[in-house]
Design a protein that fits this description.
Layout: H1 2-12, E1 22-26, E2 29-30, H2 37-52, E3 60-63, H3 66-73, H4 83-97, E4 100-101, E5 107-108, E6 110-116, E7 126-130, H5 136-144, H6 147-164, H7 171-183, H8 194-212, H9 220-233, H10 238-246, E8 255-261, E9 272-277, E10 289-294, H11 299-303, E11 309-310, H12 313-316, H13 324-327, H14 329-346, E12 350-357, E13 360-368, H15 373-385, H16 391-397, E14 410-411, E15 418-422, E16 424-427, E17 430-436, H17 439-447, E18 452-456, H18 464-469, E19 472-475, H19 483-491, E20 494-497, E21 503-505, E22 510-513, E23 516-519, E24 523-527, E25 532-535, E26 540-541, H20 547-559, E27 563-567, H21 571-579, E28 585-589, H22 600-608, H23 612-637, E29 642-645, H24 659-669, H25 673-682, H26 695-700, H27 702-721, E30 728-732, H28 738-759, E31 766-771, H29 774-778, H30 780-784, E32 789-792, H31 794-802, H32 810-818, H33 835-849, E33 854-857, H34 865-874, E34 878-881, H35 886-903
Parallel strand pairs: 4-5, 17-18, 18-19, 19-20, 27-28, 27-34, 28-29, 29-30, 30-31, 31-32, 32-33, 33-34
Antiparallel strand pairs: 1-2, 1-3, 3-8, 6-7, 6-8, 9-10, 9-12, 10-11, 12-13, 14-26, 15-25, 16-20, 17-24, 21-22, 22-23, 24-25
The chain binds phosphoenolpyruvate and magnesium ion.
Phosphoenolpyruvate binds at residues 587, 589, 648, 772, 793-796, 858-859.
């Protein structure tokens, strides 16, 4: 008891002040490095690293992520003790570049940006041009010899600061600007004169005062403290929280704040700003790839407001746009040298941001670039060939879950289609759905079971929930690095962006193109690989996997210790799984074979039989059908192990549920309706999942399993007769005690022996059990006496260990996860401490009795990368998962083996 109190006090006490929490960087001097992401955030760590590499980075400093926790502990305020260290660092920046913060003649302006340990693109806040007021703007005008630029920067600063720091609705200022442009008949912002901008600044400040009741801060230091606080605040905005939940980023990490001297891409036609990838993030092609805007400021490119120009001449070909290579050749060639240096240094594809101020290039960011799964595979293979990384590193860089993207359908090239428009191929895949125009509606429609395409002029971080809900995303503005494109690629979601020929009208909820007017609810199809948009639903086809995929899978297969099998009940599933590299069937749920139209009545006849002989009559009808099922599966798996689980669900699942259906069945079976109805009623159970199911059915009706075992044995004999080899694995479900298994094993062996004698054929086979009840795991040593193998049914084991119904708990499990009671949905990723301990214990106990006992897992967790890592550690022999997850499991198993090696 006493100990508990201490622990609670410790958790809530204020953490100690770090000795150092402001890290300076400027040419020739960087206090941080790339290895310090935990405290400097990704951006800060890499700015320091680039500085050390001799790459031009504007001087600045990073306030560490630890201060984020102190900020929240202080009730959302910047603690006073943070300030002196910041002031000192600012003085060093001033000394480096010979300008002073707040100076009226030659003012230093800074940017204030977030930067968490893991990249969260666009999720948190940024403030540019900080340090401007009515006096310093004049200084900037003089020092830059460009009053228009100075006043334009000032009006941008007020817009950004009032929105991000003062919480004002930014559209009010935007409307004022648009009104002025309309009055003056201007088309572009660039036509605004110095006097216009001065008037705008005046109007903006008045509006800010009117709306917030506060004057716009004129003291640069006050501006700075406000901006730093706003960035820490933005760690906990709803959109940042949603993003963190989606990407499993802990709230405790916090963000760092980067304060950096401004460089200006908006100083005229010899200035520019852009973003680039060292390789194509969509295809992985080894080609420098990016976008830029002349005479623009940082956020303009990412925000997708103007459609940017390609960086290289090759990419610009045919677009009618001028590349950076042509527009600013010197800066371009410097950029090429830098990107090559960065990629070689980080040994990974980089996503970089840069600004060119009056022809001089500055780097503002580098990080490992997000990429599609196809690109990830290609880059990994190419980098192995380039000797940049070895095979193990290649595997460790790949995210097994992301392979899912590759296994998704694409549009059938032979399908009839009506092309509506062509945008940018922002994220691959072929999808169709009904169009909706808001994120909220995308979420609502998805909940109603509809497939939707989210149509937006451009997306912003507020749209994240809608993007998750949608099949695909379509935007009319923005480039390949716009918010929509970057986020969709990260999610593995199909996206067509920047499709300017389509006009989207939010008011009337329509999209217009080529004379078509599509309303909310109309269907379109997107091809994220070509950027094409089609009218109506276009047929999709299953994906084909390329050489890179095969190569990575082969490498993974050499490394992994776990075997990967599949859960398959039909020849089609079995074939798909084999194509994906499954090494056998780990679970064939035979009940799925009972639902076929040609056999369900025979199954029902068996269930309603009043005595053994009637039941056997019905079972005789089922026998040839089951034999054929097993024959097909064995044949496809061609000698690989096939585990057949005997009947598992409660019998009432197979009988009619309405009186109408019961009447019809009575007629078909030539039996009395009332009698049938009474029988069906008698099968009702209050808690069928814990009722008369699994091996319990066979304890009371042994003839059911006997028929199934006979079907397996007869199918085996047929294949042996054809010269094939096989070792069928017969699996008994839901065993709680060794006695149950003892009885059912004897019964199964007797039946196989009978068949072998009748047919005069011998074959090897195994009889094993599922471990899916806690009692079975706890008494696994006794159970192993009667089992040739174990297969953990972690679905039922999770259900019974946590006492959580697998069918009903979805309603409240979400709250358990969001409130942190459970780290993840335990039906998706195994509860390692609870259910996992039972798996470990069951395996150890089983192998105590039989050291060579084969042990696998066939619950859904067999396809979950994190769970697979756990199963590897426990020492299982195989995992079994649905066919489409087989490649994911192969890669996850290889990574688990490598991570295990690293630890030892
Ligand atoms: C399990 O319980 O984990 C299992 C594989 O069986 P089922 O899902 O069919 O109950
Ligand atoms: Mg089960």
């Amino acid at each position: 008891m006493h100990q508990n109190v201490n622990t609670a006090e410790k958790a809530s006490s204020t953490s100690t002040i770090p000795q150092k929490f402001v890290y300076f960087f400027a040419a020739g001097e960087a206090e941080g490095n790339a290895g310090m992401k935990n405290i400097l955030g990704g951006k800060g760590a890499n700015l320091a690293e680039m500085t050390s590499l001799g790459i031009p980075v504007p001087p600045g400093f990073t306030i560490s992520t630890e201060i984020c926790a102190h900020f929240y502990e202080a009730g959302g305020k910047l603690p006073e003790w943070v300030r002196p260290a910041v002031t000192t660092a600012m003085a060093k920046v001033e000394a480096k570049i010979g300008k002073k913060f707040g100076d009226v003649n030659n003012p230093l302006l800074v940017s204030v940006r977030s930067g968490a340990r893991a990249s969260m693109p666009g999720m948190m806040d940024t403030i540019l041009n900080l340090g401007l007021n009515d006096q310093t703007v004049e200084g900037l005008a003089k020092s830059s010899n460009n009053p228009r630029f100075a006043w334009d920067s000032y009006r941008r600063f007020i817009q950004m600061y009032s929105d991000v720091v003062m919480g004002m609705n930014s559209s009010l200022l935007e409307v004022t600007l648009e009104d002025m442009k309309e009055d003056k008949h201007y088309k572009a912002d660039t036509e605004l004169t110095v006097d216009d901008l001065k008037l705008l600044v005046k109007k903006f400040k008045e509006l800010v005062h009117q709306m917030t009741g506060q004057s716009f801060p004129t003291d640069p230091w006050e501006q700075l403290w406000g901006a730093v606080s706003a960035v820490f605040h933005s760690w906990n905005t709803p959109r940042a929280i949603t993003y963190r939940e989606l990407h499993s980023i802990p709230a405790s990490w916090g963000t760092a704040v980067n304060v950096q001297s401004m460089v200006f891409g908006n100083m005229g036609d010899d200035s520019a700003t852009g973003v680039a990838f060292t390789r194509n993030p969509s295809t992985g092609e080894k080609a420098f790839y990016g976008e830029f805007l002349i005479n623009a400021q940082g956020e303009d490119v990412v925000a997708g407001i103007r459609t940017p120009q390609p960086i290289t001449k090759i990419a610009a070909q045919g677009s009618g746009m001028k590349s950076l290579e042509e527009a600013l050749p010197q800066a371009y060639s410097q950029l090429v040298d830098i990107y090559k240096k960065l990629e070689a240094h980080y040994r990974d594809m980089q996503d970089i941001e840069f600004t060119i101020e009056r022809g001089v290039l500055w780097m503002l960011q580098t990080r490992n670039g997000k990429r599609t799964a196809a690109a990830a595979l290609k880059i990994a293979c190419d980098m192995i060939d380039e000797k940049l990384i070895n095979q193990d590193e290649a595997l460790l860089r790949l995210d097994p879950g992301a392979l899912d993207q590759l296994l998704h359908p694409t549009l059938d090239p032979k399908a009839q289609k009506t092309l509506l428009a062509k945008g940018l191929p922002a994220s691959p895949g072929g999808v169709n759905g009904q169009i909706v125009f808001t994120s909220e509606e995308a979420v609502e429609w998805k909940e109603q079971g509809k497939k939707v395409i989210l149509v937006r002029v451009e997306t912003s971080p507020e749209d994240i929930a809608g993007m998750v809900a949608a099949q695909g995303i379509f935007t009319t503005r923005g480039g390949m690095t716009s918010h929509a494109a970057v986020v969709a690629r990260g999610m593995g979601k199909c996206c067509v962006a920047g499709c300017g020929e389509v006009e989207v009208d939010y008011r009337t909820e329509t999209m217009k193109v080529k004379g078509y007017v599509l309303k909310k609810g109309d269907v379109i199809t997107l091809d994220g690989s070509t950027g094409e948009v089609y009218l109506g639903e276009v047929k999709t086809i299953e994906p084909k996997l390329d050489g890179n995929f095969e190569r990575i899978m082969k490498i993974a297969d050499q490394v992994r210790k776990l075997k990967v099998r599949t859960n398959a009940d039909t020849p089609k599933d079995a074939q798909t799984a084999r194509n994906f590299g499954a090494e056998g069937i780990g679970l064939c749920r035979t009940e799925h074979m009972f639902f076929g139209a040609d056999r369900i009545d025979a199954v029902r006849e068996m269930i309603i039989a009043d005595n053994k002989s009637d039941r056997e009559k019905a079972l005789v009808k089922l026998l040839p059908m089951q034999r054929d099922d097993f024959y097909q599966l064995f044949k496809i798996m061609d000698g690989l192990p096939v585990t057949i689980r005997l009947l598992d669900p409660p019998l009432h699942e197979f009988v009619p549920h309405t009186d109408e259906e019961t009447k019809e069945l009575a007629k078909r079976l030539g039996t009395d309706y009332e009698r049938l109805r009474a029988k069906v009623k008698s099968l009702h159970e209050f808690n069928p999942m814990l009722g008369h199911r699994g091996c319990r059915l066979a304890i009371t009706f042994p003839e059911i399993y006997q028929m199934q075992v006979r079907a397996i044995a007869e199918a085996a004999c047929m294949l042996i007769g054809e010269g094939k080899k096989l070792v069928p694995e017969i699996m008994i479900p839901l065993v709680a005690t060794d006695k149950e298994l003892d009885i059912l094993r004897v019964s199964a062996i007797n039946e196989v022996k009978k068949v072998q004698q009748e047919k005069g054929v011998k074959f090897d086979y195994l009889v094993g059990t599922m471990i899916e009840l806690p009692r079975a795991a706890i008494t696994a040593d006794a159970i192993a006496e009667y089992a040739d193998f174990f297969s953990f049914g972690t679905n039922d084991l999770t259900q019974t260990t946590l006492g959580l119904s697998r069918d009903d708990s979805g309603r409240f499990l979400g709250s358990y996860v969001s409130s942190g009671i459970l780290p993840k949905d335990p039906f998706m990723s195994i509860d390692q401490t609870g259910v996992g301990s039972l798996v470990k214990m069951g395996t150890e106990l089983g192998r105590r009795t039989k050291p060579d006992l084969k042990v696998g897992v066939c619950g859904e967790h067999g396809g979950d990368p994190e769970s697979i890592e756990f199963f590897h550690k426990v020492g299982l022999d195989y995992v079994s998962c649905s066919p489409f997850r087989v490649p994911i499991a192969r890669l996850a198993a290889a990574r688990a083996a490598l991570l295990g090696k690293k630890l030892h």
